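Sorry to interrupt, but I need a hand with the structure work. Please put the record directly below this note.
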Amino acid sequence: MKTKNTFKIKVLIFIALLFFSTYSNAQNAEVLSNLTPQQKEMVEAQKKLLIKNREAFKATLSANQLEILKNTSLSKEDRMKALTESLSDSQKKLLAKNRSEAISGKENFKATITEEQRQKLQLQIGLMKGSQEKKELREGVIENRKNRKNGNN
């Protein structure tokens, strides 16, 4: 009896995971459906650049800095503050370079979209407001604004 129930639970979990991953991919595909092939390439290239830059930055972190990031006794905000304070000049320059590349990529992409595409993107992104990705994006933007306001580029 227990094996039947555990099997049913495993099947339900698998179906749920499959549904949610398909739903997430469908949202991404829907957002990209309004873009031209060149714009899609720009988005993909920007994603790859961000990942490469993130990996390059992570490779520069010292053991002490990695420990700061793993320290669960600190809040996320405190971890980021401690990490920021521990960054070397070269790491700060790398982050500034990465940030400027991300901003220029965003500006380049914005220059290619039409008003209609912009409105559709805003609508589709607005529909994702309750999603986890949107919450994380919003939290990141808020944190960046606070840092800039406090002079902690």
Observations:
- Residues 87 and 93 are 10 Å apart (CA to CA).
- Confidence is low (pLDDT under 50) at residues 19-27.
- Residues 1-33 form one domain.
